[in-house]
Amino acid sequence: MPPKTGETASDFTLPDQEGRPVSLDSLLEKGPVVLFFYPKDDTPGCTRQACSFRDNYGALQEHGVTVAGVSRDPQTDHVSFIGKHDLPYPLLSDTDGEIHKKYGVLGLFGMLSRRITFLIDRQKRIVLRHEDNFRMSSHVDAVLRALEK
User: Is 51 a catalytic residue?
Assistant: First the structure.
């Protein structure tokens, strides 16, 4: 079960596309964090979701937000995905699915990730949990609405 709004986000450290370790604490250094989980690099839905965060990246930065995507894809897939779509934020590799389990985002039979976005404040409190597998831009829209409150 994914953590609910108001609960504390689980700590983690995962490699980014370059193999550098990225922790929740390091992401929170500058302000709130958008952590979006998605099933697979370079698939149509995931591309639309990732590009909607790219297209709204300036607005998110105006709110002091750091963005990171998480999937079970290997780092090499992330490098290609970032380059192909000019994504300005890191993609984290959770190949063993441990962080997916902590955040309750494993899908059917533990195979693919559910499409869930979390907005986490500097105290590690989950401010928003948004799940939508059909309207890809709804994730960034929900985050922007929550930031405006």
Answer: no
Fold of 13-148: Glutaredoxin (3.40.30)
Name the active-site residue from 22, 27, 35, 46: 46
Q: Which sequence spans correspond to the domains of the chain?
A: 13-148
In this predicted model, what pLDDT tens digit does every residue of 25-37 receive, in sequence order? 999 999 999 999 9
The reply to whether the predicted model has a pTM over 0.70 is yes
DSSP E strand boundaries for the chain: 13-15, 21-23, 33-37, 66-71, 91-93, 116-120, 126-131
pLDDT tens by residue, 10-53:
999 999 999 999 999 999 999 999 999 999 999 999 999 999 99
- Backbone dihedral angles phi then psi of residue 10, each to the nearest 5 degrees: -75, 140
Q: Of 64, 59, 70, 63, nearest to 24 (Cα)? A: 70
